[in-house]
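Incident log, structure service

09:12 report received: a user says their structure output differs between two submissions of the same chain.
09:20 pulled the input from the user's history:
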Amino acid sequence: MNRLLLAAALLAATAVPAAATLQIEVFDNGSLIDNVTGITTGAASLTANDANFANITINAQGSPILPNADLSSVTLDATAALGFTGSHTLTVDILQSAIFGTGNTLSTFTVNGLTNDPGPTVESTFANGGLLASHTFPAALLDGSFGPVSAATGAFSSDETQFAIDFTAPRQSFGGSIQLTTGVPEPSTWAMLLIGFGFMAWGAMTRRKARELIV
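09:34 re-ran on a clean worker, output below:
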């Protein structure tokens, strides 16, 4: 029995955790038009092809390039084609799996370089499929940012960022980013750390004064 327990402990100690994977999916009005999956290098890129868009380019970063279980949709650039007709919602999901995250998260959303008034735009973050934070930028907004938004969560093994942009006319162009920072100490933890540092500083000062009196 002891040998079995020892063998199990050794296997557990030498087991290599699964590498974090990145996945990008692009949808036009709910229909999947392109995707890239199983990226384990920490950086994923996709230039999607769709008749309604002249350009859809996504770049994302995650573990192991970024610390903890952070996920950064560095850029999303999309432009409606010259022959674009009707109304199309472009949805982009960036999913990171096989990670270990816990604690507070911070979500920051931006839009920039918009032309010809696309939108509204909804940007969101998720952990284990549950919503962490979301913000809607109105149409005709040239540049804007929102956050960081703090959200507490328990342990999670996947996180996600999502763009949903409404396009209603040809040559509308969108640029934006989402940053998800994980493992951020909660405010109460920061408070305890500050109190602890304060006591350490006070103790050091008291000891120095005592030495000066002795001398």
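09:41 both user submissions now match this output. Likely a transient worker issue. Closing.
09:42 reviewer note: The beta strands are 21-28, 31-39, 43-47, 53-61, 71-80, 88-111, 121-127, 130-137, 144-167, 173-184. Helices lie at 2-14, 187-214.
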